[in-house]
Amino acid sequence: MDPAPATPRWNLERPYLTGRFHQEAKTAAAAQAPGSKPFSLDSFSRGAGASTGSVIGSFAASVQELLVIDDLLSALVGIEGRYISIKRVRGKEGYVVFQIDSSMDLALQERTREIFPLCEDYVLVSQFVESRSHFKNGLVNHALAAALRAFLLDYQAMVAQLEHQFRLGRLSLQGLWFFCQRMTSSLNALAVLVEKATSNNTSGSATLNLLQSQAKAMGGDSAVRSLLEKMTEYASAAYLRMLERWVYEGVIDDPYGEFFIAENKSLQKESLTQDYDAKYWQQRYSLKEGIPSFLTNVAAIILTTGKYLNVMRECGHNVQVSLENSKLMSFGSNHQYLECIKSAYDFASGELLTLMKDKYDLIGKLRSLKRYLLLDQGDFLVHFMDIAREELTKKPEEISAEKLQSLLDIALRSTAAASDPTHEELICCVERSSLLKKLATLKDLDCACPADKLAAADVDQSMQLSITGLETFCLSNKVQWPLSLVISRKALTKYQLIFRLLFHCKHVSRQLCSAWQIQQVFRSVKILGTPILRSSILCRSMLKFVNSLLHYLTFEVLEPNWHLMHDRLQTARSIDEVIQIHDFFLQKCLKECLLLSPELLVKVEKLKALCLQYATSIQLLMPSIEVTNSENKSKSGKSRSRTNKSQDRDQQLKLTSENVIMSESILKFEAAFNSELQSLAPTLSNSSHAEPYLTHLAQCILGVRIDQ
């Protein structure tokens, strides 16, 4: 907000322009040299009568009445007379008291003092008009000062008419008092108003609230109430113009910081795709304190309306609400202004939602995220894991993101994803920490366990496994404005958490399938009770566990929740509702995927780690397969009988099956897997009562255990 222009010094230093001339000594001020300080009435005593040596009490009562009426006509507009003086109240700027010559007839004194409050109120209101007309006080105070000035003009016209009657000899002191009664209550109400406004230094909405409260307090005096309501209407005109520009154009036209909506220009829309904790949508435009009482109930709607219009303007889609029959003239009891605001909100909301759905294809973008980050279309992933296996087995810091991106592009172009234009928006990412550590860093997730305990329970530390790209790889997506309002950095991070869980489950399943294929060659060795048979049964149980977990995540969690979100989006009426529906979908998926249940997630991760260790051990402890294959290739040129080859192969397989190390390893894996599975089953069963979604997972896991 630019600083308010300064009020020129000449407008402050010349008393006859500011209404302060009643505070300056007339003869003493004129005698002062240029540039010197004028005398104040606080140090100046008497009036013109004192200088002549006569006092008002020396005249007859009839003459005194004429003299005091003449002085009162001046006092009514804040000017000293010959026998009525003005003194300032110390410590209160603008406050004055009127004093009468004590030698005056007592009856005349009493009647004169009854008129003094009107004079004092005029001075107070006049001073307020002058002071609140300065630039720094804002448009509302300017408008109120202008309305008060118009009222004072009517008041001064009344004084001029009374003076005319006095010159014609038709005005008595009693008559003067009588004719002033009409203005007394009105000017007193305005004086009380400006006194409170001055003491609280109100501006903007605070001034409007004060006007409204004062009008309501005058319910017993319809004339005064009507006057204050009129003042409120005039003062609110400037405020309503600000409101109009905001709800009809999305522009804050607030040169003095009076509007109840603040703009934080340091927050840019680009932060939505870069910062996990981006506050652009919540804090770029926000409500300030001191909302006008007549707008309190619709303040949120007003804020949202302007925000929607701003989004469309940022997109280059200039749109303005039609002003036909929608002019915000006042906020009277008919509540027409509320209907105008509601109409503006409905228009802006509908326009932005149509823009997001039609021009920017919001639903299509969400389908793309489902297809690739929630693995709805998995053929590209199988191909990618095959061709990127060597790169993904490296440590995260050794992986080339550019090479992974190139391999991903190859996988996408060689599968059904090639026909989808959105596949070009996919980006490869490699995190530097495990899934559990990543969850521990996200403070805003509603986890049931503290972050420090979550990090301490990291499976990779307990299992002493080295982290590779297979545990840290994830996909991201390019999101442009204005879709980033819905699919922000935070939303994409939640998608990535789910992707990492699914991707790792796929990897574990593939490793177990490889181990299963290696063991198939032992079918010809028909020795029941050997470690090979136990390993085969264990491998099948592990595969059922991982595949059941994948089935649960895909078909029991992601698929139904996505369809539910899709149906709700069809009936959404605003972009805020879309954001709420989308965030609810992601939060629900995170919860039902166990990512917000650390105790269960740690157990599942331990089971997956055991499966990976087992699959790796099988490949290391059965080298004879590879040896046999290499011998067959190296001796392919030599003539060997099929019978001899078969006998050699059977002999090597039998030796391997009797290997002591392999037997011990299989028994160890079997005991560890069964133990973890048995500890998981009761936890799932107990938690399923409080969390019904765990019932499906419990059935899958318990099924594996029963089968085992």
Automatic annotation (TrEMBL):
Domain of life of the source: Eukaryota
Major place of residence: cytoplasm
Transmembrane segments: none
Region of interest (Disordered), residue spans: 630-651
Residue ranges constituting the Gamma tubulin complex component C-terminal domain according to the UniProt record: 362-697
One GO term describing the cellular component: microtubule organizing center
Ranges for domain Gamma tubulin complex component protein N-terminal: 69-359
Keywords: Cytoplasm, Cytoskeleton, Microtubule
Subcellular locations according to the entry: Cytoplasm, Cytoskeleton, Microtubule organizing center
A Pfam short name: GCP_N_terminal
Similarity remark: Belongs to the TUBGCP family.
Function: Component of the gamma-tubulin ring complex (gTuRC) which mediates microtubule nucleation.
Stated name of the protein: Gamma-tubulin complex component
